[in-house]
């Protein structure tokens, strides 16, 4: 059983519980800035800055972090969007973290970073202030991905559609995803390789699709590499969570875009 299998098994239990206890509140309209527009209009690398206390691959990263203080620093340093890990079991996050960040930061696009397998989790994310959800191609069948994608879009959400290989990228293209995240980390082995972005981005030729390079971004060189192969945005967690100077780290990441020929 891979770690992804274990996480999805846990999500099935959580969804069952949610269905029993979750009192659906009135759906709030999503009124944050659009992630898609922000990425597509920017002349510099867009940064989705992540609040992540711990992870199955790294263990403890920054256990004592105050998510609101961290997110405010991200905003001040020029983040395009904030991502909050909400999974409790494997990442030590919570929906409460998402809510408090949502109240403190009213405008930036806000990603509920979790493993979505059911519409009720999307409702919960919206209730807690998210404007973006993640769909992980490796976790679901194409019909489920299509259903959840359509549902999220119907609520006015942005969807970060995460892929790790060519086959998953083809699924993303068939579904019509406009923001494709290429995860450099294999969620089954934890292996990280930035060349994943290069390989998979080569298949995504449409300039109207925003490509996000995810995971393992540490240095300005890493960002330059991702930019050179077509990424207009990066999703960065650990490097920012460990940074002693978030403003300097963000300035390193926010490089100009060159309109790479792909
Ligand atoms: O901390 P990193 O290596 O900068 O990675 C951030 C982000 O890409 C990573 O947290 C992530 C990408 N896809 C995911 C899916 C689930 C949980 C976590 C993730």
UniProtKB/TrEMBL annotation:
Residues 4-251 form the Indole-3-glycerol phosphate synthase domain. Its EC number is 4.1.1.48. It catalyses: 1-(2-carboxyphenylamino)-1-deoxy-D-ribulose 5-phosphate + H(+) = (1S,2R)-1-C-(indol-3-yl)glycerol 3-phosphate + CO2 + H2O. Pathway: Amino-acid biosynthesis; L-tryptophan biosynthesis; L-tryptophan from chorismate: step 4/5. Gene3D superfamilies: Aldolase class I. Keywords: Amino-acid biosynthesis, Aromatic amino acid biosynthesis, Decarboxylase, Lyase, Tryptophan biosynthesis. The keyword Amino-acid biosynthesis applies. Belongs to the TrpC family. PANTHER family: INDOLE-3-GLYCEROL-PHOSPHATE SYNTHASE, TRYPTOPHAN BIOSYNTHESIS PROTEIN. This is Indole-3-glycerol phosphate synthase. It comes from Siminovitchia fordii. The gene is trpC.
